[in-house]
Amino acid sequence: MGTKNCPETARQKMINMMYLVLLAMMAMNVAAEVLDAFRVVDSSLVQTYGTLQKKSNQQYSAFEAAFQMNQDKVGPWLNLANEVRSRVDTLQKLIFDIKEDLVIRGGGVKIADIDGYEYDPERSYVQNYQGDSLLIKKDDELNVPSELMIRLNRGVELRSAIEKAKAELVAMVKDTDAPIREAIMQELATPNPKRNLKEGGENQTWEEQNFEHKPMIAVITLLSKMQIDVKNTEANLLNYLYSQIDASSFKFNKLSPVVIPKSSYVLEGDVYQAKVFLAAEDTTQQPEIIVNNNALSIVDGKGVYEVPTTKAGTYTWKGVINFKNPDGGINTYNFEQEYQVGKPSVTISPTKMNVFYLNIPNPISVSVPGVPSANLKVSMSNGTVERRSDGLYVFPAKEDINGKKTQVIVDATIDGKTKRMGSMVFRVKRVPDPVAQIAEKNGGVLRKEDLMAEQGIFAALIDFDFDLKFKVTQFDVTITGAGGFNNTWSSKSNMFSADMRKQFGNLQPGSIIYFDNIMAHGDDKTDRSLSPISFKIR
Length: 538
Fold this sequence. Notes:
Layout: H1 10-28, H2 32-69, H3 71-105, E1 109-110, E2 125-127, E3 133-135, H4 143-151, H5 154-171, H6 179-187, H7 206-211, H8 216-245, E4 254-261, E5 274-281, E6 288-291, E7 294-295, E8 298-299, E9 302-303, E10 313-324, E11 330-341, E12 347-350, E13 356-357, E14 362-367, E15 376-380, E16 383-388, E17 391-396, E18 407-414, E19 417-425, E20 428-429, E21 435-437, E22 444-446, H9 448-453, E23 458-460, E24 470-480, E25 486-491, H10 498-505, E26 512-522, E27 527-530, E28 533-537
Helix pairs in contact: 2-3, 2-8, 3-5, 3-8, 5-6, 6-8
């Protein structure tokens, strides 16, 4: 080590330069965990897109069915619905084409072109407009998105297409006070970001904000999110147009608030979103709701469908709602829903490694799908669990090398009742002994200059993941001089004494220096006797 009185050696300067290069390389790479998160989010968005596509098809089918019942009345609204489909499809095709162009330019290929290819869940994929699957070569590719979207102006093309579609869709709503107009404007907004004075106040475009210097998988995910926004706009506008068909025919005498959350599970840092609206109801007549050929009991115009869950899996249920219209006929509304049943499960993960250590806080992560962390109670059989502001910490009481007595147990409060969710067995070990070091060495050949540059002897935990420190509290130094005579000096700290340093200055090449009687005190409040170390002076 260099000190004020000992300038840096050439070796130390080289190490410092290598460290700076390493930091620069790390800054240029996107963390694998971040890329995996984008891959998971994009997969979820693609599934949502498929669900919304099915919903849109059902809405168009509803327009067709209504047209068959009353062509004069429904005809103009059906034409508007078909215009919505045409404009949305044009915009969606453009986004699909941009996705495909990004993947191909980044070295990706169609799965159908790879002989005998087997699906790999660790890789990323996209689908083009025709439904073909393409394999993304590099999730962290940074140059291709910027090249295509910024320099080749595909971002400008996309923004113009979104703004054009927005204007055309808004124009279909003749009532200027209708909330759907503002909803479309917000859903398909493409504004330039506000200037950030803290970062220099430079102007930035919508294209630069979304696509410049972004990894490939992040841009793909953003494009998928845009497709979802377009699909949501399509669904909301179709609902509005369909409501206008009989707006002047049906009469309702009661309004009820309805809240439909986009999702009841929200990631930290994301936005919780819910649609809140008023539902109209005619209390003078009750609808007929039939599911699985059985009529549901109706209370205040609403049917309640209940079915016991006996097996995990995905289930679909559908039915029909019959409602008498003002003309005396019966309007029929088909519906279909899907739900999932999962087995109770629990995940207990040691944050550092698959073992707990005595006398130090061991962080763990505990989660139960669908249950808030505040409703979880975590305990253990060999020690205690402490909940702190930054998470859960385990404090084992006794050593348990074979993991026979140490269990972490998780209970959850669900609907006011406590339920055992699961447990996991862990091993408990003593923190390993540190190793005595001088100039980051624990033996061998040592240059006299390196020894003189050091201030003392240090204790290091080798390959130990916890940030745990040991400090040497005493040691002896024995030096073998000419004629084979040995002399010993002692220190009651980790520092070299003045006498020791004087002797170091007199060392000759080939001298042997021996350190023993080394004791160290650790953060785990234990004292350790460390193995001796020796060096041959060069």
